Amino acid sequence: MKFLKRLLVAVVIGLVLYALNLAMSKEGLFGIGVPLYQVDLWKLAGINVILAVSLNLINGFTGQFSIGHVGFMAVGAYSSTFMTVYYTQGLEQSLAGAVGAGVAAAIVFLLVIIVGAIAAAIAGLIVGIPTLRLRGDYLAIATLGFAEIIRIVIVNTNRIGAATGFRGAVDPWPGRVTIPAYTNFLWIGIFDVVTIVIIYNIVNSDTGRALISIREDELAAQAMGVNTTRYKVTAFVISAALAGVAGALYGHWRLPHPADFTFVRSFEIIIMIVLGGMGSITGAVLGALVITFLPELLRQLPGEVYNYRLVIYAALLILIMITRPQGMLGGREIGFNWLKRAQRRPEGDTAVGADKGVPIAERDAPTADHAKEVENR
Amino acid sequence: MSGSTEQNASRRTQAESILTEAAHTARSQEVTDTSGAVLRTDKCTIRFGGLIAVNSLDMAVREGEIYGLIGPNGAGKTTVFNLLTGVYEPTEGEIYFQGKRIDSLRPHQIARRGVSRTFQNIRLFPGMTVLENVLTACHIHSRQSLADAVFRTPRFERDEREQREFCLELLKIFGLERFQNEGGTSLPYGNQRRLEIVRALATRPKLLLLDEPAAGMNPAEQEDLIELIRLVRDRFGLTILLVEHNMKVVMGICERIQVLDYGKPIALGLPEEIRNNPKVIEAYLGD
Ligand SMILES: Nc1ncnc2c1ncn2[C@@H]1O[C@H](COP(=O)(O)OP(=O)(O)O)[C@@H](O)[C@H]1O
Ligand SMILES: [Mg+2]
After folding, report:
1. Which residues of A touch B18 (CB under 8 A)?
2. CB of B144 within 8 A of CB of A205?
3. Domain span including residue A214
4. Domain end: A209, A232, A263, which one?
5. Would the CB of B231 count as within 6 Å of ligand 1?
6. Do B277 and B144 belong together in one domain?
7. What residues of A are in contact with residue B229 (Cβ under 8 Å)?
8. Chosen domain end from B145, B170, B204
9. For residue B231, which of B56, B8, B36 has the smallest C-alpha distance?
10. Minimum mean pLDDT among A80-89, A155-164, A360-369, B95-104: which range?
11. pLDDT at A320
């Protein structure tokens, strides 16, 4: 029953994304098409959602301050495109004979996305283990340094295009001349949903409570048996893997270039989650959308005002942070009830708060005799 | 005490049976413990720079007793708790719990061995509800894996349900279950202290360390607390080590009392002995 409900929700979401994807393609959906410029914006927004929601696991829920998220994205982007350029062409061709070109491309893309996620997760582990003994500012600087190291390694590796960006195989290596443009809005949308569901399910579980307890009071968390180092590394690895997915999607759309992976981009992702509200999944989504679209909306400003759009952008951000220092949602969630309901067990309760927190399993009052004794004493 | 729990066996709740089982394991292991104490420190010393906060402390807490640790402000009582729970490592000396050395273990490892605590300055998780605070402490005994959580498997659902029921039972014993959805730190002070005890119990400890649990409570709340501490000790067969400033509470509840002064143990005995011990009186008057 529960499985059927979940399946139904998944199918509906899939269909909606499929329709949106059609609308964003050249052909359009029943003649309705989205202008190419806006399509790119929506794709970027979708990728930003993955980045913001995943970074939120470290910065928002676990309370650690990482500013190296773009480093994991870069690892995902380059490792996955490296695979499609040098290794998967043969596989895709032989698959195409059996299942058709479209399905073959999808299978290969899914494979390399997973490669990107795993590579980024390993990077997360490598960074996580030594640096997570650091706290606060020190951790922030270490993660920043890590992302820069990744970027510098890329700039100095000819086989992945070095400083000029990665487009395809470089002589004399055989391989694809251009990275295949697998990414479309459907892929991005699916991984948005996957990311949100994964993070939501983790946050609302024993692991999530362990992570949040680290943020709330690390000493008390340890005293309650939480291996705080291990859980910080866990958060890093999961978050990095999802950033790797975002990188793989980005790499097969825009072609990776070292300039896309500077610390400025890391800061942008942080601004998204701070703006949306640290520790809120819907807040991170909202923040990603605002940060993607706001500068573009300001481009529409007329005449003289147009020249001041960056000033206005900054002023708006400051204004939001002054009026809502906790971020737009301040740790709460909006509109998640449908998802919660989809996960409810049939006999489940209705006492699901709209705010953040674990759904509460109401049960009949426990008939503990001693509790009555205490009360009657 | 074990007799009364056996009589009630049929009426025992889940929370009780889990906790008594934990304590029973403690008891059977203790038989092989030659020192006969569930918790033992051996010439335990810690220095902070030039300051000797705890000086050659020998302590042996027996299975099932309520053991009081008292002394003037700054005597080193909280530091002893921090040593026992792995927050600090002793500069010298050893700590044994159930016959095994624990002084170089990390705090979460000691918690897993069955030592739980409350804090003198309440350290609830501020962003969590009452129930979430307690649920978090069930972490050690959680049977769901990360994959169970991500895929919302039946095992996840079952584990969450069982943990919740267990936590609600514990909250009920302390009369806090009706606040389950309120913020933990928004409760009145006395209830925050009680919630911290509930949270500590949720780790299913064998040894419970209470750091000034009656601080900030009014006399009625203190009475209630004394009853509750006895009740959980009896029901769950816990061993309790108690630091307390309030003499009424200490004398009313502790079976043996050890006195610290400037980090040094100066007396150990029954409440009446301690009350009339000239060294103790001097230490307190000189405070
Ligand atoms: N981390 C620390 N660094 C330096 N001095 C400390 C530290 N922790 C405790 N102390 C000192 O140790 C002494 C004992 O403190 P404490 O154990 O808190 O006393 P009590 O709980 O008995 O009131 C005090 O003088 C205190 O200042
Ligand atoms: Mg103290």
Report:
1. none
2. yes
3. 39-263
4. A263
5. no
6. no
7. none
8. B204
9. B8
10. A360-369
11. 86
What pLDDT was estimated at residue B286? 62
Query: CA–CA separation, A305 vs A108, rounded Å?
Result: 47
Vertex A216 angle, CA B169 and B146, to 5°: 70
Closest approach of chain B CAs to the CA of A269, in angstroms? 24
Range of the domain at B145: 124-204
Q: Is residue B77 part of a domain?
A: yes
**Residue B119 lies inside a defined structural domain of this protein:** no
In this structure, what DSSP letter does residue B203 have?
T
**Domain finish residue from B172, B204, B236:** B204
Residue B179 lies in a domain: yes
Q: What is the mean pLDDT of residues A12-30?
A: 86
pTM: 0.86
Model pLDDT for residues B188-218, shown as the tens digit of each residue? 999 999 999 999 999 999 999 999 999 888 8
Q: What are phi and psi of A361, to 5 degrees?
A: -80, 100
User: In the predicted model, is pLDDT for residue B6 greater than 50?
Assistant: no
> How many residues are recorded in chain B?
287
pLDDT tens sequence across A272-286? 999 998 999 999 999
- Among the partner-chain residues A207, A212, A375, the one whose CB lies closest to the CB of B128 is A212
Ligand 1: residue of B52, B57, B70, B78 to mutate (most ligand atoms within 8 A of CB) is B78
Among partner residues B107, B123, B181, which is closest to A360 by beta-carbon distance?
B181
Q: Are residues A233 and A96 in the same domain?
A: yes
Q: Which of A215, A234, A263 is the last residue of a domain?
A: A263
Q: How many domains does chain B have?
A: 2
Confirm whether the ipTM is greater than 0.90: no
Q: How far apart are the first and last CA of chain B?
A: 38
Q: What is the mean pLDDT of chain B?
A: 89
Structure tokens, A282: 């819907």
